[in-house]
Structures are given as C-alpha cells and as structure tokens.
Amino acid sequence: MTTEQLHQYFLKSSGACTDTRKISENCLFFALKGDNFNGNKFAAEAIEKGAGLAVIDEEEYHTEGKTILVDNVLESLQDLGRFHRNYCKAKVIALTGSNGKTTTKELMHSVLSQSYRVIATHGNLNNHIGVPLTLLRIKEDTEIAIIEMGANHQKEIAFLCSLAEPDFGYITNFGKAHLEGFGGVKGVIAGKSELYDYLKDKNSPIFMNADDPVQREKLENYIKKIGYSTEDKNYYRINFLGASPFVSLEAEGTVIKTQLVGQYNFNNCCAALLLGKYFNVPMVLIQDALSEYIPENNRSQLIEKSGYHILLDAYNANPTSMKAALENFHQLQSPAKSVILGDMFELGDDAELEHQEIADLAAASNFSEALLVGENFSKCKTGLMQFKSFEQLAEYLQKTRLPEGDLLIKGSRGMALERVLPLLS
C-alpha cells in the first residue's frame, strides 16, 4: 500500500493512535513494536475498542477489512506524517535545544494562538514517534504547527527535520544535556545545530537569541535570521526587569509580568514574544498570552503547601538547568531557603564530575537545608546530607521537618521528585 493510499484511510479516521488504552472511535491504530512489546498482538483489541482500522506488519495478525498490512509500521507512520504535513497548508515551526523546549513551545503556542489556528506538540512527544503523531494532528484549517524536537544523539534532529520539513526554527540553547549520547558538549552543539543546517539548506528564516555566543557564531553569515537581544540594537530589544520570583520583561515600552519563576525563563518568554512580533500578533495580545500562562507538569511550578513556598521543577534536569535553578533560587530574598536535588541522568563518563560540581555549588550557597538524593549524588564528596535512594530520603522527611520558607525541588524525570510533596505535610 502506498503512503497516499494510507493517507486516504487516515483522512476518513478520527486520528492516529498507538496505544490501546487511548483508542478513540474510528481511529487508525498503528501497531508499533518495541524491545518489550509487539503492537501487532494488540490489533484485534484495538478494533474491539472502536478503532476503524489497525496498521500492522505481521501477516499472521491480518484480518481482511480490519487491518492494513504494511512492510514496517513505524516507517509507515513516519511517511504518513510527512505526507500529511505537505497535504496541509500549515507553516511549521521546529523547536529544539538543551533546556526550556517544552515551556518555550507552550509560550509560543499561547502567543500565536491569539491570532492564528495553532497546534503544538502534546507533552514531550518529540521523538521519532511523537513528531509524526503531532504532524498527523494538523488539520486542513491549521495555520501554524509548532513541532518540538528532542534528541539524545547526533543525526536525530536531522531525521526529525526530514519528517516535519520545518519552515522556521528556533534553538533554545546548547547545554550539558544527554552528554552520554552526544559525546560531550561539542556533540550537543553539533547535534542541535542540525536544525540550523536544514533551514540554511532551504534558505528559511531562523529565530535566535542574539545574546547567545554559540548562536551568534553559528548564524554569523546567515541572512535570514531574526533575533532578540537585551543589548544589541541590531536585533529586537527586550529588557529583563527581574525575577523575584516571577519573570518581568519589557519591549516597546510594554511591561509584561509573567507567572514564570526564575530568570532562566526569561529567554523562553523572549522567544515567544519574538515570534509573536514576526507573525504580527498585536503587542497587547502578546502581553495577555505571556502574563496569563501558568506552568504545569512539574515544570517551574510554584506551590504553597504546609508553610512552604515550593518551586517544583521535577520534570527534568541536567547540569546547565540545575546550575541556573540553584543560582536563581540563591538570589531570592527569604529567611529560609532549602533545596532537595535529585540525580541528573544520561551524563555518561561526565556524571561524577557534573554531580560533584552541583553539590559544591549547593554547599557554597549556604542554604538552610540541602538534601541530595540518588546514586550519583550519594557518591559526591560533600558535607551535605546524601541519600542513595528516594526511599531513604522519604524516611528522613517523615521524621524531620525542613525549615518553613522557600523550597526548591529539582531532579531528572526518572527521580520523580514530585513524590516529596505529600511528605511535607
């Protein structure tokens, strides 16, 4: 079956699905395979739950009129996503970077939705499966699609670009994330810059933070760059007004007070503001969008609980974001500031050094309390309290109450440090 033929089936469906727990009536179920599962085995279940058809790649599960047999389900999903992207007329904005991707995506969506019909990546569906699924959410009347792209090794962004074929792009930053897969910081820069390479080949516009020396160097001789800066008059000027604790900024005489905690969120706001200006969203609507956005999903959430002002940033962590969070938290004016920090994952051979540097920074910050949890943090040489597992931390918190005041909780997703919250009552 050709991709064009499969697309005709897709257009008659209610959408694409890869999880039998999320079947919608008349959806097109893609029976993906993984290391520990075979989606072909669930094709019949998907049909029973209401799927219109199931796309499979093993003949023994084929049922005439209920399944579509293809050579490779994943490749068919990816090809279909690319085909549908070109079938629709939406402009595609690709977004990647080491830190702040998802918050920036949500802010861009909030701003651009003021004037356009926009879809954006749900959650963190930003890989070789998530990107085509997002592309398949584009409707014929969608005007802009914001596609988040994640990567933990080189050539991954290049591949995702081949699927989404973006018209515009933005890289939030180049930080110490996924060092194991990328092979160090230089590998991170090379891998993320594959978005630049793709857009340059198409002679397409690139949005940039002109205050980032890496971005300035990468785009030095590129003509179609649209940037913002706090200093350079050659770019769109945005001024940082403060983050105590919420970020405030100013552009064109308009002051915008956000509900985002931490100076590290300033650039995320700037990117959304820049896109809004480029796409001619009125400044008053940009102001509304940025000021009304409230973070969720454990990302820089400010929570009041049991005498604590909690900054919960437990969705992800790497050395760059951890350092930024600690420095911002240290600057807050508060009589009592405590931190609970969890391990940072996918650092490879750099794990020991990077965790030690964060432990040293936390120790030098003289917080009221600083608790480190995880295999890597437990190996650091420090005078701070260390816990090898979350269970050990939980046992401590059930017996010991931290000083009331400000509390930063940050760690990689695998640490699931939001589990600390019920222990603070």
Automatic annotation (TrEMBL):
Coiled-coil regions, chain positions: none
Molecular-function GO terms, alphabetical: ATP binding; UDP-N-acetylmuramoyl-tripeptide-D-alanyl-D-alanine ligase activity; UDP-N-acetylmuramoylalanyl-D-glutamyl-2,6-diaminopimelate-D-alanyl-D-alanine ligase activity
Compartments it resides in: Cytoplasm
Enzymatic reactions: D-alanyl-D-alanine + UDP-N-acetyl-alpha-D-muramoyl-L-alanyl-gamma-D-glutamyl-meso-2,6-diaminopimelate + ATP = UDP-N-acetyl-alpha-D-muramoyl-L-alanyl-gamma-D-glutamyl-meso-2,6-diaminopimeloyl-D-alanyl-D-alanine + ADP + phosphate + H(+)
Biological process per Gene Ontology, one example term: peptidoglycan biosynthetic process
Origin superkingdom: Bacteria
Gene3D superfamilies cross-referenced by the UniProt entry: Mur ligase, C-terminal domain, Mur-like, catalytic domain, MurE/MurF, N-terminal domain
Limits of the Mur ligase central domain: 96-275
Mur ligase C-terminal domain span: 299-383
EC number: 6.3.2.10
Domain Mur ligase N-terminal catalytic, residue spans: 18-61
Annotated GO CC locations: cytoplasm
InterPro entries reported for this sequence: Mur-like_cat_sf (IPR036565), Mur_ligase_C (IPR004101), Mur_ligase_C_dom_sf (IPR036615), Mur_ligase_cen (IPR013221), Mur_ligase_N (IPR000713), MurCDEF_CellWall_CoF430Synth (IPR051046), MurE/MurF_N (IPR035911), UDP-N-AcMur_synth (IPR005863)
Principal location: cytoplasm
Alphabetical UniProt keywords: ATP-binding, Cell cycle, Cell division, Cell shape, Cell wall biogenesis/degradation, Cytoplasm, Ligase, Nucleotide-binding, Peptidoglycan synthesis
Function description: Involved in cell wall formation. Catalyzes the final step in the synthesis of UDP-N-acetylmuramoyl-pentapeptide, the precursor of murein.
Protein name, as recorded: UDP-N-acetylmuramoyl-tripeptide--D-alanyl-D-alanine ligase
The gene coding this protein: murF
